[in-house]
Design goal:
By secondary structure, the protein is an alpha+beta fold. It has one domain: Jelly Rolls. The strands form 3 sheets. Strands 1, 2, 3, 4, 6, 11, 13 and 14 form an 8-stranded antiparallel sheet that branches. A 4-stranded antiparallel sheet has the order 5-12-7-10, with helices on one face. A two-stranded antiparallel sheet has the order 8-9. Strand 8 and strand 9 form a beta hairpin.
Length: 285
């Protein structure tokens, strides 16, 4: 699935983009399902639905309403949509991650993140690994572009090589903010690269990589299907913040029946009290 250049780029920078891994026809069922959820959200004033731990499945931006829906996240869409489950059952996303981590892959979680026009949704600088630590760091966040991702649409920005650096605290003055300190974020702004590509592209990012994204400044949506996959011998060390009945399942290869660990130290993360980590990053806990 991946060229040697793409593999090298991933291990050097912590991220690589595979352009047009999926066709428009592949994306259509995902888009139709997402539009259905947007239409459904018009009937709700706030977050709605329910995942395994009782928190809302569907999260909306402040200011969301019937006339201006701002559905920003669907947690564990594979549980309620065959179209999204199909992506995890084989195809380019799974094969690309297997090219990087080896044949034996385990599913951790997935979500659908969207920045609708005018919603103002942003993501502050953070590392996924400090939300979801595992016994080892062979862990990848795979992002499938449901739309063309351009500079103006609020693309993911990643600091090259940061996956080989320290794990930064997401706690500040005894509050779990879900974001790194301001001085770290300032350095990230000067070093980051943008992850751009046409619809159907895959962005593969190491979960230790520092990343963020700004708001969507276009008249169209910016939607990503995001799945976290790990080597099958990487075992989660804390409860999953986006729980799914499929969490822990083997997606490719087999279960090796062993745990591989590496040395690292970090503070415990905190599962958001509300629908998603957006509230934590906004200071809402």
């Amino acid at each position: 699935m991946l060229s040697q250049a793409q593999k090298s780029e991933f291990w050097e920078n912590g991220v690589t983009v595979v352009e047009s891994a999926y066709s428009a026809a592949d994306l259509e069922p995902l888009r139709q399902q997402h539009q259905h959820w947007i239409d459904e959200s018009r009937q709700h004033a706030g977050p709605f639905g329910e995942v395994l731990d009782g928190r809302p499945r569907f999260d909306v931006e402040p200011g969301h309403g019937k006339e201006s829906p701002a559905l920003r996240r669907v947690a564990s869409p594979e549980e309620v949509s065959q179209a999204y489950l199909d992506i995890l059952q084989g195809g380019p996303l799974i094969e690309a991650v297997a090219d990087l981590l080896g044949a034996d892959l385990r599913f951790h979680h997935a979500k659908l993140n969207s920045k609708l026009p005018g919603s103002g949704t942003t993501v502050k600088w953070h590392q996924d690994f400090t939300f979801d630590p595992h016994s080892n760091d062979d862990c990848i966040t795979a992002m499938l572009f449901l739309d063309d991702i351009t500079h103006e649409i609020g693309p993911a920005r990643v600091v090259p090589g940061s996956h080989r650096g320290p794990l930064y605290s997401l706690w500040h003055k005894d509050v779990f903010t879900g974001a790194v300190a301001h001085e770290v974020a300032a350095r990230c702004e000067t070093e980051a690269i943008e992850c751009l590509g046409p619809e159907g592209s895959l962005c593969l990012m190491h979960t230790r990589a520092l990343h963020a994204s700004s708001e969507n400044l276009t008249a169209g949506p910016r939607t990503l299907y995001i799945a976290t996959l790990t080597a099958a011998d990487a075992i989660p060390l804390v409860p999953c913040a986006v729980p799914s009945s499929y969490s822990g399942s083997i997606l490719h290869g087999r279960d090796p029946g062993r745990i591989r660990s590496i040395a690292f130290a970090m503070e415990n993360p905190e599962i958001p009290a509300g629908a998603s980590f957006f509230n934590q990053q906004a200071g809402g806990g």
